[in-house]
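Thread: Newbie trying to understand structure tokens

Hi all, I'm a second-year student working on a class project, and my supervisor (Dr. K.) asked me to get a predicted structure for one chain before our next meeting. I've only ever worked with sequences, so writing a 3D structure as a token string is new to me. If someone could post the tokens and maybe explain what I'm looking at, I'd be very grateful. Here's the chain:
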Amino acid sequence: MNNSEVITKELEWLDKLIENTMANYFRDKGTKELKEPEAPEFIESHYHNFLIENRLTLDERKVITLALAIEIAPNLLDIFLTKNKLYDTHFSEFGGVSNSNLNSFIPTMQTALFLLSGKNREKYIDSIELFENSNRLLKNDILDIEGFSNSNIRIHSRLTLTKNSINLILYGKNLPFEHHSNFPASLLRSNYDWEDLVLAEDTKEHLDEIGLWLKHSDTLLNEWSMSKSIKEGYKALFYGSSGTGKTLTATLLGKKYKKPIYRIDLSQIVSKYIGETEKNLEKIFSSAEQKDWILFFDEADSLFGKRTSISSSNDKYANQETAYLLQRIEDSTNLIILATNLKDNFDNAFLRRFQSIIYFPVPNEEERLSLWQKGFSKEADLKKVDLVEIADRYELSGANITNVIRFSSLKAISQNSKEIKESDIIEGIRKEKYKEGKII
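---
Reply by user tm_fold:
Sure, no problem. This is what the structure looks like when written as tokens:
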């Protein structure tokens, strides 16, 4: 049986569940309650693998199938459009949102609660727990949390599957998490490889320690039984001037060890809604722990620097949220990397929490030459350029050099030439220095 057939059987089961719940809800007093139809047996398929991997209970399975129906078989939900003849309106206990344009019914949290409990108030109250942030349905990014946070009354929130869970159910493939207001993180990617990095030797040696952790932490913690004395996670601080390779290094660590690395958008961390910050952060950390991500906080001193003095209620809540985030980082089982230009902005007590504190200096002459040589395209003609002299004469960061290479290469292309002119390189360097308030 293929995945489509499995889903079809699951939806047929949902259809029977809805009919059964309706029949029991409207049955006359004294009549026997109908027995609930049995769920289909698990069969090797994308959908059932999804249920098993997320360890979903039978009730959670019902919720997922209900949410899936609006995507595949919305006609199964038409029965919820039934009107209460006494009041000539829809039954409020069915919940849902009516889509007048499509003449269809969109289930809400209340619809799911009705399906799970019918007239049973105790079961209704117990089932609300399924929609708490700590529950698998939200914690595992199965249901769209955005719908739940934006509704004034939670039970009226639409029951929506995330794009990733739909993709897993239908095709068995993960989608990269997308940056949005409730998930302030974005996947870091690079066309470079680890071998392309140009870093100081001391920096490379410290990075090797992180590599050892990524490769052998499981053996250390489990086979060597060190989990009692050593925490599972690893925290590293990258510090140094802008453009010295902190973000690229973090990105390539993820690429080298085949671990997705997500950059946290600190500008969206402290929400104007009290309590929303923790929810958004918890979503990121929970996803990271389940999927073995690396988390990268850039410009970390903006949030983690020396603690703000409290002069207003906003300062109070900002400090509370920062304290929460500090504790969450402390408890995380993942590799967490924080980057800053100024290490001195951090409290010493906070610095002691890091397993590695790694300095990214401005590249020296030899490193600058390597950056120049590796940076240009193989198509570029550099015969009339003395890169050794340029590397010796001009102190630039890796980012500065990349910008100059881009500028001088585009100048050559604009003249229908592959020849890189040294004058264009000097002009590009002058522009980079001007950004920093320097004149050459």
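A couple of things are worth pointing out once you decode it. DSSP finds 18 helices and ten strands in the chain. Residues 151 and 157 are 6 Å apart (CA to CA). Feel free to ask follow-ups in this thread.
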